[in-house]
Amino acid sequence: MKNFFYKQTFIIFIIIFFCLPLLQMIYNIFPSLKTSGVEVSQKKPTFTIANFLSGNFQEEYNSWFNQNVGFKEYFIRTNNQIYYSLFNDTPNNSTLLVGKNKNLFEKHYIKEYFNITPPIDIALLESKIKQIKELQLLLKKRGIAFLLVVTPSKASIYPEYISNVLNSQNEKPRNYNNLIPLLDKYKINYVDGHEITRLKRNQGQYPLFPEGGTHWNKLGALYTTQAIIDNLQEQLSQDLTKLSLEDVKIDNNPIGSDKDIAQLLNLWNTPDNFEAYHPIINATAGKHYKPRILIEGGSFDDLIIELLHEYKVTSSIDFYFYYKRLVTYEIGKERSDKGPVNSIDWETDVFNKDAIIVEMNEQNIPKILDGFIQDALNKLDIQEISFDYIDKNVSQIDIKGKIGYLLKKGAKNQTVFLSKSGLNLSQNTDYLLSYKAKGYNKLNVDLFPDNLPEYRNEDIGNDFKEFNVVFNSSSESMKDSKLRFFVDGINEMDKDIIIYDIKFEKVGK
């Protein structure tokens, strides 16, 4: 009888144990815990016959269930704590690594440093540096300083803390080793944060990366920020506010990114009581020029921006975080998150700055031309329309500081007002013509000879409106074509036309 009771009790216990996650999922009996890290929220799928038969419903439901099953966070923390406390390690599927002296690393930085992630082809890298040189020159023509900032990785500055299992560097040069000579060869304006940090690490008495963080600490960021200020001062020929280190406060209170990996471990007992080093900084007194700066880059920029903003080195900073989110900083104001980057007015939002800084971490060099740099280059790589034929019925005028043209009424059918010859265009390539116009409602634009595209604009009104036309042709004639504005199919223009801000650009690279 006693054995039966024990068996029954055991069976009931097992049933309750296996039902508890489901009960927790439905009734939330115990408080829910949060785990650190990025996880895309899964919506509970709606059942349909079509989704079921295709298998999509089962797949989506499985993803949703795995994310919302009860006690998931409890199990994760317990599992991670066992690995960390008993084995000084993380689970096999973790992106984190526990190194020597409890120093924490992200594995992708380690893989890059030891060439487990292979470097990109040096010829491809050089072609990208040539394009950065082109961007630098185009910005200089507009009076805008350009600066490339290479930030360091913890793996490259403190490789001795990495487990011996991974510490076996490939003899092939890293992307960083290939990059720096190319930046020198093409005279790119750059700050080598890796080299600055490496030298300061060897000279100084304080760590420049925190034990529980993947990013540099504020002291490490300060040295590279000082070099950025020096470089911009030289490029802008202006006296900027300088930052200097007065002292370092040491405590066991790491803040912000100093403990970002420690929190990502998702333990019951987060190891965040390690020594932290807080620089005490002086800013030069007096009046200084405060430039408007745009910074495009990643999370290593956070402390650079904090220093520039906190000590009023700049009047404003527009930070394009991974070119996905815009955060702005203005002197005397709090940080403002503007949200996702959906569209950019390049003239107003980008090319009105005193300086543009592009930051890339040495681990992320292969993405050197992704996104912002390529788009900025495309926007600057515009063929200025300087017409080599202007009809007698046309007067050149100034409109809002831009060259405009007054096409006078009275023009007869097939009057060519403006033309630009000798365009060396590529076949099967999109070219965007944009212009603003008002007045008489008919105006044609084409590429000549006649086998190339022509567009009729009958939407011109009494107020200025922007028009955009895309030209593309497989014809050989594109290589020596002529752009024309003209009227056709009319008796006589009974009203003036004013056009200005005429731009012609290649779309994409």
Could you characterize the architecture of this molecule?
The chain is α+β, with helices and mostly antiparallel strands and 509 residues long. 32% of the residues lie in helices and 26% in strands. β1 and β2 form a beta hairpin. The longest helix is centred in the first third of the chain and has 26 residues. It is globular and about 110 Å long. The relative contact order is 0.09.
How would you summarize the topology of this molecule?
Elements: H1 2-27, H2 49-54, H3 56-68, H4 72-87, E1 96-98, E2 104-106, H5 107-113, H6 122-141, E3 145-151, H7 154-157, H8 175-185, E4 190-192, H9 193-203, H10 218-236, E5 243-251, H11 260-264, E6 276-283, E7 292-297, H12 301-310, E8 316-321, E9 325-330, E10 336-340, H13 346-350, E11 355-361, H14 372-380, E12 382-384, E13 389-390, E14 394-399, E15 402-407, E16 415-423, E17 431-439, E18 443-448, E19 454-457, E20 465-471, E21 481-487, E22 497-506
Parallel strand pairs: 3-4, 3-11, 7-8, 7-11
Antiparallel strand pairs: 1-2, 5-6, 8-9, 9-10, 12-22, 13-16, 14-15, 15-22, 16-21, 17-20, 17-22, 18-19, 18-21
